[in-house]
Design brief:
- It is a single chain.
- The chain is of the alpha+beta class.
- The chain is 19% helix and 43% strand.
- It has one domain: 2-Layer Sandwich (Alpha-Beta Plaits), CATH 3.30.70.
- Strands 2-3-1-4 form a four-stranded antiparallel β-sheet, covered by helices on one side.
- Strand 2 and strand 3 form a beta hairpin.
- The N and C termini lie far apart (45 Å).
């Protein structure tokens, strides 16, 4: 059995005329295994909105997330971060030498 997916950060395109980011966040947060969703607008174009979607949970079903986003008219551009295991490990900032 593989370790549960605990956090995923996605770069997503959403149509302007599609559902609001409030609707998208509620739909995703309602999926099993998801504890919270954060959506940030990164860029607005004539027809699309570029979003960063951060999802945290106890056992995120990525296929279900992808399917729900597609149902909402969204497209995943990339998976920018994935965290799996018993706990979420935060990135540590590394200072560059002078």
């Amino acid at each position: 059995m593989s370790a549960p997916l605990r956090k995923v950060v996605l770069d997503v395109l959403k149509p302007i005329k599609g559902p609001s980011i409030i609707d998208v966040s509620r739909e995703l947060a309602g999926l099993p295994g998801i504890d919270g969703v954060n959506i940030t607008v990164k860029e607005i174009d004539v027809e699309t909105v570029t979003l960063t979607i951060t999802i945290e949970g106890s056992d995120i079903d990525f296929d279900m997330v992808e399917k729900k986003l597609e149902e909402l008219g969204c497209i995943i551009h990339s998976v920018d971060q994935a965290v799996a295991g018993k706990k979420i490990v935060e990135e540590e900032a590394i200072e560059q030498g002078e």
